[in-house]
Specification:
Length: 154
């Protein structure tokens, strides 16, 4: 179970959703963005699909409403959320469209980089060497700590 809620009719200042602390004082749409893999648009869509008033604060939600939100976020395609809205389309391993949340985002990114390094792709090699990957110029920028300019003669 992903939701931990102590009592009914009690305002919660911090909620625990999907291994993330969510602030209860903020409106529900914006407080859900604290979960990794959930942005403002996805949060807005999830709240609408769960029939939750967007003016409510996150700490005012009931157990049932929180369960609905978590279920929709974990299985968005079952609730008719289109594939183009998901953050993991055509996964290289299984070819499925999924939406990664919290720790899974980091795991998927690490797996992708390891796959690129393993097949010796250009992107993977540049990640391995620790230099710019997306075609930026590297002659003068991004030197990070190395000395800049010409050394003086004594």
């Amino acid at each position: 179970m992903s939701v931990v809620v102590p009592d009914k009719n009690q305002f919660q200042h911090i909620l625990r959703l999907l291994n993330t602390n969510v602030e209860g004082k903020r409106k529900i749409m914006y407080s859900l963005t604290a979960i990794k893999g959930v942005g403002r648009r996805f949060s807005n869509l999830v709240c609408k699909k769960a029939d939750i008033d967007l003016n409510k604060r996150a700490g005012e939600l009931t157990n049932d409403e929180l369960e609905r939100i978590v279920n929709i976020m974990q299985a968005p395609s079952q609730y008719k959320i289109p594939n183009w809205f998901l953050n993991r389309q055509k996964d290289p391993k299984d070819g499925k469209n999924t939406h990664s949340l919290s720790n899974a985002v980091d795991n998927k990114l690490r797996e992708d980089l390891e796959r690129l390094k393993k097949i010796r792709a250009h992107r993977g090699l540049r990640h391995y060497w620790g230099i710019r990957v997306r075609g930026q110029h590297t002659k003068t920028t991004g030197r990070r700590g190395k000395s800049v300019g010409v050394a003086k003669k004594k």
